[in-house]
TrEMBL record, chains A, B:
<dbReference type="GO" id="GO:0046872">
    <property type="term" value="F:metal ion binding"/>
</dbReference>
<keyword id="KW-0482">Metalloprotease</keyword>
<dbReference type="GO" id="GO:0008237">
    <property type="term" value="F:metallopeptidase activity"/>
</dbReference>
<keyword id="KW-0479">Metal-binding</keyword>
<dbReference type="InterPro" id="IPR052170">
    <property type="entry name" value="M29_Exopeptidase"/>
</dbReference>
<dbReference type="Pfam" id="PF02073">
    <property type="entry name" value="Peptidase_M29"/>
</dbReference>
<keyword id="KW-0031">Aminopeptidase</keyword>
<keyword id="KW-0645">Protease</keyword>
<dbReference type="InterPro" id="IPR000787">
    <property type="entry name" value="Peptidase_M29"/>
</dbReference>
<keyword id="KW-0378">Hydrolase</keyword>
<comment type="similarity">
    <text>Belongs to the peptidase M29 family.</text>
</comment>
<dbReference type="GO" id="GO:0004177">
    <property type="term" value="F:aminopeptidase activity"/>
</dbReference>
<protein>
    <submittedName>
        <fullName>Aminopeptidase T</fullName>
    </submittedName>
</protein>
<dbReference type="InterPro" id="IPR035097">
    <property type="entry name" value="M29_N-terminal"/>
</dbReference>
<dbReference type="GO" id="GO:0006508">
    <property type="term" value="P:proteolysis"/>
</dbReference>
Amino acid sequence: MTTDLPERFPIDADKLDRLAEIAVKVGLRLEPGQDLFLTAPIAALPLARKIAEAAYKAGAGLVTPIFSDEAMTLARFRYGSDASFDRAPGWLYEGVGKAFAANAARLAIVGEDPMLLAEADPAKTSRANRANAIAYKPALEKIAGFDINWTIVAFPTLSWARRVFPGEPDDVAVGKLADAIFSASRVDGDDAVSAWRAHNLALAQKTQWLNARRFHALHYSGPGTDLTIGLADGHAWHGGAAAAKNGVTFNPNIPTEEVFTTPHALRAEGRVASTKPLSHQGTLIEGIEVRFEAGRIVEARATRGADVLRTTLDTDEGARRLGEVALVPHSSPISSSGLMFYNTLFDENAASHVAIGQCYSTCFVGGDRLGPDEIAARGGNASLIHIDWMIGSGSIDIDGLDAGGARTPVMRGGEWAV
Amino acid sequence: MTTDLPERFPIDADKLDRLAEIAVKVGLRLEPGQDLFLTAPIAALPLARKIAEAAYKAGAGLVTPIFSDEAMTLARFRYGSDASFDRAPGWLYEGVGKAFAANAARLAIVGEDPMLLAEADPAKTSRANRANAIAYKPALEKIAGFDINWTIVAFPTLSWARRVFPGEPDDVAVGKLADAIFSASRVDGDDAVSAWRAHNLALAQKTQWLNARRFHALHYSGPGTDLTIGLADGHAWHGGAAAAKNGVTFNPNIPTEEVFTTPHALRAEGRVASTKPLSHQGTLIEGIEVRFEAGRIVEARATRGADVLRTTLDTDEGARRLGEVALVPHSSPISSSGLMFYNTLFDENAASHVAIGQCYSTCFVGGDRLGPDEIAARGGNASLIHIDWMIGSGSIDIDGLDAGGARTPVMRGGEWAV
Ligand SMILES: [Zn+2]
Ligand SMILES: [Zn+2]
Ligand SMILES: [Zn+2]
Ligand SMILES: [Zn+2]
């Protein structure tokens, strides 16, 4: 075997061990006897192996890995027949849904080249994504609804490192990406489990404060930004650890810095400018400026990638409305790194953000008992897309507004005011 | 990525391309639009990639790979809780069964370390094998019943090469195993597809001759061997290409040298000595000598591994009776190589052999319409095991016997007499 990257690249073996431990003990909080379904790019094999070992040591039932391979994905887009782009492995996803129904936990390692399909025919990638999304939907709903404990962690693959650190020699790029992942994932220190306990507590204090205030809206002001975002009726703020319906308290994302909730789809007003580029399906969209009226984006500009932005906004009616509002302090470790990861797991934790498209049903009080109509009635948005988009920086102030218009400082200069 | 073994080890890239082509065009005869389910050890990634490319070029629907990893398997046996050894991924196998029902083709790349679990607790491997076999049975029945086109090919992984060529440097071992696989798989020459057409024709001539003779029994004589094996009522000889129920004519094994049929479970009489060691679950069994009475092994000895042999024979009643009889000329390429591969895909093609245990229902005239009782009534054996065991050599003569006892030479000195 020649896939043991740590031998070849400067990836700290102790920190990789700790990341595997955090993935199993904090991300999943895997229960003794619980099966684990694990997905990873083959290039992330060193972490997948350590996670399997940590899972078995924690008393896992059976660990079942499914690996993806970038070269095989590319072969499909290079040589596949036209009909192949409407195919999806429904039989596999149906099985995955059954595994979740039988209480298997779910772990995803990310590390794919974010530009892998940048040169593929956009019509083919869009058809393939659509076919896959439809086939995966029943299983994804169990994830999105927190039926079981699940988590996402990252491994510094070479193909990803080359995008984040272009121009660097391979070993330098992988080493730098590894350091950035370990630091953001809070496994630099010896006692990472305690570090995560403290971090979850800090995030819980913010969500408790916000949930007690029950703001009617948030107001953002800063360079190019004067925006009021209404919050959904009965919205609930979440962040850090979450409770799954199977009774396990888990951390869905490693790393995570955000607290987030569901905005009201009909109540956004004003202008907002993006503070970071948005990497979407291999395209970089920069300098986004949009204007909202009654919750809908009625004007949209970008200095780069404007056509991709417009196509995205035209996906469906919900694509022009907000589905998530998230607060991240400007001093967060990922923001401080100054890096663009081209991966939402990291980039959404670098700044306060909003997402256009689908909302989270879990971000309502009693959300697990609400049907789609009840969620819509409370202002929850629905769409085929969910795209996070950074609007925070060190020069953004955010106020909480009550129904009467009274203001409470939430963030000042990008930092928590509470 | 660092898994591209061809860059590191002396594996002929042209021959690897040809093996992928033969796997898709001869092994599977993949139909345009047909999905492909592919399994492989991660160490076989270079061949898996070439097969995916060849499949898409041949018009495949979707290629879905599932990779196994030796280190993750070992982690289970080292660290898994006691309860984990009774678990199996039933949700996955159920999905695989659905893929076959929807006409997906199936390709397996073998290349695992044959001694991977040699040091694991035999009680755990046996429980894990049993749980897996039970969960996989519905999908396996579609394979064994030739519902769809499927094939098995081999890749020279390092862990396997080290077992076949112990003491050689890694690159030499892999290079030698690669050469042996390519040669046995008949991809040495430029036109491998034609070579396989000729080979399938030669095998078909033997099965046609044997099927026309409808022998009542075969008689084997040679050093330590004086054995009569009755053939099942309505038996059919097979070899080389086979017809699947989905209408595709495919080659289930790459390589293959055997023609084979179902013996009568109640009609074996006499003594037989093994001509090669038998590699079974990490143990080598050598110098086997057994005596049959009325189809049943009533005496069994071995100069090495006798206890494993006895335990195996005690699996169930059918484990002491024959389920396959196969003829392979002593001059076959795999026999000529003189190598022990520790993998049935190769070793069973090095010599005429028998298997104790389960018979093939496809080896009856009209076998796809016969139920278990009808197969048993015709002499077909049933067991949880099927273990091939070499009894051919250059000094074995085989005669066909008709019901009245008249003899027809079938093999002389290990070579076809017809
Ligand atoms: Zn977010
Ligand atoms: Zn989001
Ligand atoms: Zn055989
Ligand atoms: Zn056999």
